[in-house]
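Page 37, top half.
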Amino acid sequence: MHVYGVQFFAKNSLPDNITLEQLRKEILEYLPQELFRGVNSVFLGDFKYLQSRGAQAISYNNSIFISSQQETTKEIIDDLAHELGHNVEKRFFNNIHNNPTLKSEFLTKKNRAIGHLRNSGLIDYDYEATVEHDPALDDLLANEIGLHNLEKTFANLIVTPYSLVSLSEYFSEGLEFYLLNDAFYLQNICPVLYNVIVTILKSGE
């Protein structure tokens, strides 16, 4: 299957309720062609590397690998949108990583979240918030506390708890939310991120 000139491969049998044609239809509906620039191929399958990392998708060498062991087409679209966010991030690195206003917004939110976790007794050590990926915080949020357990707690602060892990994930989670969920909500709670995303998408029109 080809979409926007990108070849999609199903390395294993897909679940009965997921078809490549339905996947193609939803990609064309929700994901702009500009996001796929620089992506050569997308692989769907039961990949041991993803299993070993407890991940659903990963980008590598201009290709995207997504687990086919999912219940709905929407879940695959979510993962694809997220990885496309990282693809866009690489192309617009300066707009994101050399943007002091965006960094400030991210770090302000991260410090507020960390303060809440500390006051709740979930962090008992001194923690300096940075824009880089923090494996310790990643493990705390995902495995010790559980991301789903923090969704209501941080609902009016960030679009997803995982976006606290790094500036990279802040952008990619934000782009996914903008495309597939509620752009107006993103604008309300993360206005700088919203403006960066809109500017990037408009530059590709």
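Page 37, bottom half:
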Amino acid sequence: MMNNIEVEVRGPLSKKQYEHYKDFLSKKGLFVQEKRRVLIDYSTLMPEHDLEKRDKDIRIRVTNNISEIVVKLGSWGDKEARKELSVTTSDSFDTLVQIFAAIGYQTGVLCVRNSMVYLYEDIEFALVEVPGHSYYFEAELLISDRNKKNEAHEKIEFICTKLGMTIFSSEKYFAYVRQLNQEANTVFDFAKYQEGYFKKTFHLDR
């Protein structure tokens, strides 16, 4: 079976904590990659998708110049166990934007995220920068059997506690998401889109 169920927690980081954990994980863990990502989340602006209660995320993203369509299934929040369906394409992100607009997805939340990704104690840690705004971390295990999600969550929480990382409560996580939507993310409206916008704006290869 494929390991496509993401068991994940998140928590806030100060700039000082971000630098501390980057140094620690560089020495004690395994560096995986640096991610430069731009994404459009179409679900947030759908009237039928309540922020806290929604169980489906529809988005497109480009990470290190690789374009991708992503659908995440399951409830989300401070602790998650969601199934991720994704497919990459050699086409440009601008092409994906136009395809999604053609099938009815014309507005979404535009996000920019830079991440340093490490493996520590078999857990993937991403130290995430929201440019010009804030920092947070994601700690994730991939599993194939949903019945093992509690065991996976317990392992992640144990390691995070051992490292001194604070995990968001549900209330604080959604408050942070709303803060990001107000202060850091922007609304993408295809009606204002110009050909090649993402390639030019974010210096993409295609």
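Margin note: The mean pLDDT is 93.
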